[in-house]
Amino acid sequence: MSLFAVSSMLKPQRGTASVKRTLRKGPTGQWEYGETKRAGSGRIIRLQNWIIAKLKDLKPRQEEDPVVDPEEWPEAVDLIFVTEFGRPVNVNSLVYRHFKPILKRSGLPSIRLYDLRHTAATLALTVGVSPKIVSEKLGHTSAAFTLDVYSHVLPHMQDDAAAKVEAALTGSF
């Protein structure tokens, strides 16, 4: 079962989020934390300023009106986004109750939630973010893998590289 779980591993004061573990339903049907898919999947992600501001606004409201009973499920207290019953958000529910209706109301094409990950990576590469940095954000095992997946959006990098090398060789940089 897929989940959307964001916990207190967010450090808005530092501007980062740490990916350290996963959350899934175990064999007994109870929510449980587990290891990430690969050792390299654990990472620290630098957050954008507007996200940090939203998270800082959200925290006091959650503290004023907590949804989760700490005695029932102590680890859930750390979750930032929960259902109205204090449970982790199921991705299918998130997609069909919220994400798809937002796309429809906005007149946008129907895409998968996962496509936002690809969009973020594509935008970052297009504006010149180092493939190594994009690879680390995505939790890929190597920048080479990231370049293989996203090479179709990088033709401008060939032009930029040629112009930079030419400028260096001709002394016109």
Q: What do you see in this structure?
A:
- With 173 residues, this protein is of the alpha+beta class.
- It folds into two domains: 1-110, no CATH class; 114-173, no CATH class.
- It has six helices and seven strands, in the order E-E-E-E-E-E-H-E-H-H-H-H-H.
- The protein has helices spanning 49-64, 91-105, 115-126, 131-138, 143-150, 155-170; strands at 3-4, 10-11, 16-19, 22-25, 31-34, 43-46, 89-90.
- Helix 4 (131-138) crosses helix 5.
User: How many angstroms does the end-to-end distance come to?
Assistant: 54 Å
- Give the total of domains: 2
Task: Write the H/E string, N to C.
Answer: EEEEEEHEHHHHH
Task: Strand order, main sheet: write it out.
Answer: 2-3-6
Q: Choose one word for the global shape.
A: elongated
Major beta-sheet overview: 3 strands, antiparallel
DSSP, total strands: 7
Low-pLDDT runs: 1-5
| Amount of beta strand | 5-15%
Structural class: alpha+beta
Radius of gyration: 20 Å
What is the number of helical segments per DSSP (H or I, 4+ residues)? 6
Overall pLDDT metric: 80
Helix content: 40-55%
In short:
The protein is of the alpha+beta class. The chain has helices spanning 49-64, 91-105, 115-126, 131-138, 143-150, 155-170, and strands spanning 3-4, 10-11, 16-19, 22-25, 31-34, 43-46, 89-90. A three-stranded antiparallel sheet has the order 2-3-6, with no helix packed on it. A two-stranded antiparallel sheet has the order 1-7.
